[in-house]
Task: inverse folding
């Protein structure tokens, strides 16, 4: 019985720690699952809306109290996850006793797995790959898997991994998540170190929102703190004081951009509103004051000078803070909140009476307006007739149109109902229908943590531009291959910027055409945003753009052409995808497919004698690159025998000629040739990487181009 109990306890505990497993490479095939985390450090560099994380760790085998580690050489398998949208870009291994890290090379997955298995287990080896799993309900889940060796009882390598990810944008902050829980083990003989360098705000200390890390100290460019192996959430200052900016990066003859723009709402043209603030908190005894203060801050950010406000709150009975609506001012708001801030948290819930009294207040003033309700009431949908009666007495009893904006602070899951196959908790059914009937809003704090409350409240009450679409227009060009960076958000409070990245032709500044609906009317504004004068042109935008593009290609039917394109792009851009892998040792020969690099030898053999002398002037450029429909080749020719024609070829990754044409040109002249993306038969060429070859006598020049369909 004791043995079975021990196994059960170990199984329960193991779910709370990282998924490490060691396999003995000798013939006995023993496995081991207890480890000592001897080293863990995390370095974060934030630039714009992206941050790059480098994690270094050393894992040693640790004995159980009841058994010893079988001798031999082990291979460790680490099954792990990072955060949504993470792009692994580098990996290293340092053998025990070595002084330097060995950088992993990225190759196609078949080559990576073959070379890993062929490497002797006694030498340093590492394989990192992207995996897809199906969980218990059939949903696909993205994870990563790393294998490395050799590991013995006394010796273990040090591993370093680097990934790129987007910050989570919120009001007046950028959120960074550091998944240190993926390194949690039963034994930890070292204290993890966390370092952060915010390139946009190097002097501003990060804020620890979740996890451990409160005693921050400045060390050079980095802020440093001790932490633990738990999920850590950090808050960084906004990347721009204006929250609206344009950043660009020129990479291989293509120009990428990152754009942020606040909804260009002119507050002076907003319609004046009559707003009743309503607070009904009776179950949040410990968090009552924090909720009231957060609600007050959300209200302050959401009001404009032309609004008129009043307040009602629950005590033993509903209390009206003022006898009439009055114009909003900061002192006026402070005065209204004196009552709810200074009282003891009430015990008696007065939601139905509070709402009826608020509606009566509007009727007596002969006004319409909005009711902003913060409530944790949860028993007014049992029976459902109670909810219907409250809706009838409030929304149905208003003499003039009223809009209900409800923030539910109820965090209790005990009371629930299933209505039309939909599960509703607490008062959710009441609030949802009250908001729907009045064209209002309804949000829940139930599944959020405290540092998210302000942003959720702003989603409910701040003026919002709905169903947002933007069209950035560079000077003399256009944008294409665009990706949003707002986690699916389409409705934007005026406090929340819209983020986008993509490729563009033309020049700054951009004219940003912003469309949507605002206060029930169609909304259209155009704002000009110029490139920042000190814009460093973060290459992270380019890396993340390629990863997003590959993720979209993975959703397509997986033809041979698609797979090969993903392999090519993954390797050339050092991106970990399901068709690529990081591998140590590095290559000792050709990869499984030919990589076409600018200046590399041609994939099609052209018999030409070696040049008598190096060309004096020559150049070959393609713009745009990457391109969607057509690209223009700019060719500057050196001295050559101009009695022979200039040969221009477009070659695919297999060395096959896609298109070829000839023309006569004089020496030291410039040519402009447009390739329309069609092959010799006039059919559209597929997406992928191509090599442009130019021959003019003894002169040869290659350039890589990317076609994106």
Result:
């Amino acid at each position: 019985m004791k043995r079975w109990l021990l196994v059960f306890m170990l199984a329960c505990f193991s779910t709370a720690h990282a998924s490490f497993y060691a396999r003995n490479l000798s013939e006995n095939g023993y496995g081991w699952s207890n480890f000592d985390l001897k080293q863990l450090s995390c370095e974060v560099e934030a630039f714009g809306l992206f941050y790059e994380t480098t994690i270094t760790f050393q894992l040693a085998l640790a004995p159980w109290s009841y058994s010893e580690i079988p001798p031999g050489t082990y291979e460790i398998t680490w099954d792990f996850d990072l955060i949504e949208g993470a792009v692994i870009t580098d990996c290293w291994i340092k053998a025990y006793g070595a002084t330097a890290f060995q950088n992993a090379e990225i190759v196609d997955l078949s080559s990576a797995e073959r070379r890993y298995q062929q490497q002797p287990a006694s030498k340093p080896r590492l394989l990192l790959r992207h995996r897809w799993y199906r969980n218990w309900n059939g949903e696909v889940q993205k994870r990563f898997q790393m294998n490395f060796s050799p590991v013995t009882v006394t010796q273990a390598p040090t591993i370093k991994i680097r990934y790129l990810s987007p910050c989570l944008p919120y009001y007046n902050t950028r959120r960074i998540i550091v998944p240190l829980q993926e390194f949690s083990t039963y034994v930890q003989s070292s204290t993890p170190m966390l370092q952060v360098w915010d390139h946009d705000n190097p002097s501003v200390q990060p804020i620890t929102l979740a996890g451990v890390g409160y005693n921050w100290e400045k060390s050079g460019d980095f802020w440093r703190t001790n932490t633990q192996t738990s999920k850590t959430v950090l808050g960084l200052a906004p990347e721009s004081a204006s929250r609206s900016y344009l950043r660009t990066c020129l990479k291989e003859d293509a120009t990428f951009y990152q754009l942020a723009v606040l909804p260009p709402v002119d507050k002076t043209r907003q319609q004046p509103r009559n707003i009743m603030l309503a607070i009904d908190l009776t179950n949040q005894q410990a968090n009552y004051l924090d909720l009231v203060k957060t609600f007050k801050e959300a209200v302050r950010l959401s009001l404009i000078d032309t609004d008129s406000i009043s307040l009602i709150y629950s005590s033993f009975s509903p209390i009206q803070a003022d006898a009439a609506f009055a114009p909003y001012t900061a002192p006026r708001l402070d005065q209204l909140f004196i009552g709810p801030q200074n009282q003891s948290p009430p015990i008696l819930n007065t939601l139905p009476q509070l709402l009826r009294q608020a509606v009566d207040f509007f009727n007596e003033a002969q006004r319409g307006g909005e009711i902003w309700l913060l409530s944790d009431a949860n028993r007014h949908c049992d029976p459902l007739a109670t909810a219907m009666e409250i809706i009838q007495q409030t929304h149905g009893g208003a003499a003039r149109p009223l809009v209900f904006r409800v923030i539910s602070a109820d965090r209790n899951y005990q009371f629930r109902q299933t209505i039309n196959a939909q599960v509703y908790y607490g008062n959710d059914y009441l609030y949802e229908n009250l908001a729907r009937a009045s064209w209002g809003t309804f949000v829940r704090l139930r599944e959020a943590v405290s540092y998210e409350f302000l942003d959720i409240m702003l989603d409910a009450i701040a003026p919002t531009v709905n169903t947002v679409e933007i069209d950035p227009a560079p000077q003399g060009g256009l944008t294409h291959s665009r990706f949003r960076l707002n986690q699916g958000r389409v409705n934007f409070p005026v406090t929340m910027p819209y983020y986008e990245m993509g490729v563009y032709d033309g020049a700054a500044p951009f004219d940003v055409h912003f469309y949507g609906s605002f206060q029930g009317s169609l909304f259209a504004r155009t704002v000009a945003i110029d490139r920042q004068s000190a814009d460093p042109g973060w290459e992270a935008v380019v890396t993340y753009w390629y990863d997003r593009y590959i993720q979209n290609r993975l959703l397509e039917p997986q033809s041979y052409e698609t797979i090969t394109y993903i392999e090519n792009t993954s390797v050339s851009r050092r991106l970990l995808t399901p068709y690529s892998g990081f591998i140590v040792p590095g290559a000792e020969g050709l990869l499984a497919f030919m990589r076409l690099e600018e200046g590399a030898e041609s994939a099609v053999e052209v018999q030409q004698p070696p040049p008598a002398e190096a060309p004096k002037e020559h150049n070959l450029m393609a713009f745009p690159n990457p391109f969607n429909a057509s690209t223009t080749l700019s060719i500057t020719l050196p001295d050559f025998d101009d009695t022979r024609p200039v040969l221009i070829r477009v070659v695919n990754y297999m060395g096959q000629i896609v298109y070829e044409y000839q023309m006569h040109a004089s020496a030291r002249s410039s040519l402009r040739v447009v390739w329309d993306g069609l092959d010799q038969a006039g059919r559209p060429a597929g997406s992928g990487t191509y090599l442009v070859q130019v021959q003019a006598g003894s002169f040869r020049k290659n350039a890589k181009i990317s076609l994106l369909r």
